[in-house]
Amino acid sequence: MAEGRKGSLTGSGVARGIAIGRAHLLARSELDVRQFNIERRDVVHEIGRLTTGFNAVRAELDQLKSHISAEAPSEVRAFLDLHRMILDDALLAEAPRDLIRTRLINAEWALTIQLEEVCRQFEAIDDEYLRERSTDVRQVVERVLAALAEGRPTRMTLPRKLAAGERLVLVAQDLAPADMLHLKERADIDLAGFVTELGGPTSHTAILARSLGLPAVVGASGAHALIEEGDLVVIDADADLVVVNPSEEEIAAFHRRAREQSEHRAQLRKLRGRLSRTSDGMAVELLANIELPKDARDALEAGADGIGLFRSEFLFMDRNELPSEEEQYEAYAKVARVMKGKPVVIRTLDIGADKVLTAAAREGLGMARGAPRPESNPALGLRAIRYCLAYPELFLTQLRAILRASEVGTVRILVPMLAHAHEIEQALAFVAKAKEQLRERKQKYDGRVQIGGMIEVPAAALSVPQFVERLKFLSIGTNDLIQYTLAIDRSDASVAHLYDHLHPAVLHLIAQTIKGGARAGVPVSVCGELAGELEMTELLLGMGLRQFSMHPSQILQIKERLFELSTKDAVRVAGRVLRESDPARIRAALEHRKAAVPAAARAPA
Length: 605
Ligand code: PEP
Ligand code: MG
Hints:
By secondary structure, this protein is of the alpha/beta class. About 45% of the residues lie in helices and about 15% in strands. The chain contains 24 helices and 16 strands.
């Protein structure tokens, strides 16, 4: 079986778990583009070829879209829409026509010149998410170039027939969402996962893989040099690792781990219906963080006690027109309906910094087209509540939609990135105004809707009394609280090693907020990534936290952990940790606890 271990590669693991399969290599995507000058009389012909190429890809994307099943993740449709939008953008659709006319060059040449120009513009953007979109543009253009070469879009060539039970690991330079969908359509192929040389964890390919639950490693440079067609490939997404032709012992160990993971998952599923409590009977609420309405089902499936954070900005991104009040209402009401009366905390728009609107959407808000992004330090600039207060119509529209959705469930409003008491006052005034507008329109809402605030800025954590006086609940956004406390840009890889959640300053701010809330009788949750980290459960519990909000996939393992913990021990651990000033000793103390509390999958009787 093992052909002799070839080696391993590292990249960014996407989704969870281990995938084992035979490699199928997709050719590198640089197309051999024919470039030549044309006669003036051929201009019309070349422009016609270009139009036919664009139309062929349009038809292909439309056809794919019409075959998407109702259960497919919403990202699938969104990515096809995005590629369709790129295809229709004048920068790609019009500019090459001018190049053909003015420079007398063939269609392929004109298109590649324009592609490089567009990519140059993207790559100059100081924003990882947007920079990554140049990959989408490249993928679209490559499809048009392939259509120009062949007269129709090329389908991915697929491998020889696999042996019964054999799974496939796709190895590619890059993988377009459309390619992934073509592959999913093939009933005879069992796709285990994929490895790409390009792409980061926020690439669309990665996002799609995550939502399809496909283990993958992206950004694994050197994959084509190391892996050959038919090699046995193991993707260990948890360890960001790809192993090629592992030894017999390694294969056995990977199979064992894969089996253990699936057994553990089955054990965890049994915990779904149980109330989450500590071993000494303290009730703890486990809530879900979601980004799109369809995620609410995952939350319910995982047994979440409600939605602790609906990141509403994902309804606003990757599109040229902002969602109307009606569209937003539908989205919020859908979540409220799915959650059947369980609380649904909808965070108002947290746009800015790493989450941006498209240029066209910004233009719709009244910003000049092509204007440089106004701030040189966007994480400290016009973001979240600051953005909403600067664009009152945007804010009011969203508030009306959320308020209306409160009629169909238990909806709460959460305001991000508050720092000043006057921002809270203004946000509350906007809610009052939105209610008044609804009353004028004779539209219903639940008058008891609670308004809460996020504690994400040290200034907020240090002035909790101002917050509890004005708000009904608090939610600690540790992702940003760490970023702002330690002055570490959370999306900057070069300082990622300094982003330390165990820094005593961070821990004290969290503890202080929880205590401040408890003293005033105002519930406090943590909705940053820390809430879903097993290593942190006991410490947060000991600080007094009773509401944890996390990605749905983490809920059951945290519930399992809580069953093993006692509040009394947790309080002792938290006291010891908070007296410590050295992060290394804090880390060692938590490691020690991890070993002390059995990690075995154990459901309580
Ligand atoms: C946070 O900052 O911890 C948080 C939950 O918000 P986001 O990650 O969306 O900024
Ligand atoms: Mg945040």
